[in-house]
Amino acid sequence: MPPLAQLNDISKRFGNTQALRGVSLDVEAGTVHAVVGENGAGKSTLGKVLAGLYAPDDGEILVDGQPTGRWSVNRAQDHGIVMIAQELSLVPQLTVAQNIFLGLERNVLGLLTGSLRARYDALESTVQFGLDPNVKVEQLKIAEQQKVEILRALARDARVLILDEPTSSLTGHETEQLHATVRSLVAGGTAVIYVSHFLDAVLEVS
Ligand code: ADP
Description:
34% of the residues lie in helices and 24% in strands. It has helices spanning 43-50, 73-78, 96-101, 114-127, 142-155, 172-187, 199-205; strands at residues 5-14, 17-27, 32-36, 58-63, 66-67, 81-84, 160-164, 191-196. It is globular, with a radius of gyration of 17 Å. The structure holds adenosine-5'-diphosphate (ADP).
């Protein structure tokens, strides 16, 4: 079986800054890949190229061994590659469930009933976050909002989850919880790319 995702010889420059030069990475299902380095090393750029946020200047991206051609956030999501950025992208005034299914469900602004509730419960049974689906996201702590982001990605059938500095706003306990989540996702076959400049965190989880 080919790797879920492959970066082959990727380069990316911003003006005079060569952020990535000839980077290759194979991402297999059910693995954690740590991307470590000091600030400015190009870690976020690598994640953003794979997630379709930045177009590489050179190199190619393959999914399931197939060349991807034109790459974008939407194409990456269609292939199950989702990045959770440091700046979370939730709508604070909407509930947990509304945020998770936003854009996937036409009736998401209504009550969480019937099939949506069943889908939420199915997601929850895989991760066991224990979030209240009806609470507004603005009432949640950062660590809980991060969990909503992860559920949002899983609702889109994410197979490769890119976490960019996920512990920067978390307490020690919350970091442990996040790592437990990463381990259970990986045990279920998800691939995680874990971007961090905290070597301790990376060694614990990858
Ligand atoms: P890291 O995540 O390892 O801290 P980044 O990937 O954010 O590093 O940045 C790598 C280099 O590319 C840095 O020098 C940064 O300033 C530059 N860079 C990143 N994104 C942009 C951008 N959108 N425009 C200009 N320069 C950028």
